[in-house]
């Protein structure tokens, strides 16, 4: 099962990066699959450690995916990377092995520490819609603006019916980001 998380890493100069990533848990290990173009790929090669943050704060997913946004965070215990202030729980990992043969890498990390800060809020359709809209926003260059705007319009009723203020803000932020996008060529 793939879990949607926010992965934090730092580069060799200690600059932090937070990116939504689908990860898989395998016993005491975490499998990350960043694309070659992702800062996360570069950072995992440079510093070989990070934190997988589990959060239901979908505004953080939206902002970290399409902005160079550094959310409120604190230092992890065992690795150089940030724990989100709004994480429900987290796992700190050290990269044990990697496969860089394809455009989407496989980094297998050993969990070296973990923690829990607060309860997960529960299922919500607007939160789900924001996660889907965030994925669409990161694929604008592949799908094109019109297709992404159509898909976002299909998701909007879920937000209108069930969102709180943060989900509404996140969804509007993504819709505006897609509106502003200019397709290449
Ligand atoms: C829910 C979700 C899951 C994602 N999973 C991945 C992933 O597994 N690998 C990846 O490279 N990008 C993934 N993305 C897209 C990245 O978050 C996005 O491209 C981001 O800009 C990459 O950040 P980085 O360049 O700072 O590493 C995902 C986005 C979302 C919203």
Description:
37% of the residues lie in helices and 31% in strands. The longest helix is centred in the C-terminal third of the chain and has 18 residues, at 145-162. The strands form 2 sheets. A 6-stranded antiparallel barrel has the order 1-2-3-8-7-4. α3 runs parallel beside α6 (165-180). It folds into 2 domains: 3-116, Pnp Oxidase, Chain A (Roll); 125-180, Hypothetical membrane protein ta0354_69_121 (Methane Monooxygenase Hydroxylase, Chain G, domain 1, Up-down Bundle), CATH 1.20.58.290. A hairpin with a 5-residue loop joins β1 and β2. The chain is globular and about 40 Å long. By secondary structure, it is of the alpha+beta class. It starts with a strand and ends in a 5-residue tail after the last helix. It has helices at residues 39-47, 58-66, 125-137, 140-143, 145-162, 165-180; strands spanning 3-10, 16-26, 29-32, 49-54, 73-75, 82-84, 89-99, 106-116. Flavin mononucleotide (FMN) is lined by residues 4, 17, 19-22, 33-35, 38-40, 61, 65, 131, 134-135, 138. Flavin mononucleotide binds at residues 4, 17, 19-22, 33-35, 38-40, 61, 65, 131, 134-135, 138.
């Amino acid at each position: 099962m793939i879990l949607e998380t926010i992965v934090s890493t730092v580069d060799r100069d200690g600059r932090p990066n937070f990116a939504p990533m689908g990860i898989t848990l395998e016993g005491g290990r975490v499998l990350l699959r960043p694309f070659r173009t992702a800062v996360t790929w570069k950072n995992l090669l440079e510093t070989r450690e990070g934190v997988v943050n589990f959060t239901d704060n979908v505004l953080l997913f939206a902002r970290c995916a399409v902005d160079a946004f550094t959310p409120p965070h604190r230092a992890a215990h065992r690795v150089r990377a940030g724990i989100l202030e709004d994480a429900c729980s987290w796992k700190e990992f050290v990269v044990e092995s990697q496969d860089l043969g394809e455009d989407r890498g496989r980094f297998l990390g050993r969990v070296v520490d973990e923690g829990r800060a607060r309860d997960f809020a529960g299922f919500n359709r607007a939160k789900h819609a924001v996660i889907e809209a965030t994925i669409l926003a990161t694929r604008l260059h592949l799908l094109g603006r019109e297709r992404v705007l159509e898909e976002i319009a299909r998701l909007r009723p879920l937000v209108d019916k069930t969102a709180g203020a943060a989900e509404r803000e996140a969804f509007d932020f993504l819709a505006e980001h897609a509106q502003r996008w200019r397709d290449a060529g």
